[in-house]
Amino acid sequence: MHLNVPPIIPYAVGLLLVVFGGLRVKYLGAARTPRMTEADTESSENPPVVRGKEQIRHRRMGVVWFLLGLFLLISTYLQAHRR
Fold first, then answer.
1. For residue 5, is it within any domain?
2. Is residue 4 situated within a structural domain?
3. Angle, CA of 1, 76 and 81, to the nearest 5°
């Protein structure tokens, strides 16, 4: 079955996946420092950086979204210029 979809739709979806995948990696997948407590300020030591399972999952899925968006953009471009 041949489905004739305007190329703007895959371009828009691909661009959204690339942008939001990159944002997901940058903001949700970044290591976070815990909040300073009074004991931390008295000892003047910075708390250690915490990396939980959530950050690792967000980073992986952000990369998947990014790569899927790139694939969609490239394949749409190649399909449109093959004709």
1. no
2. no
3. 95
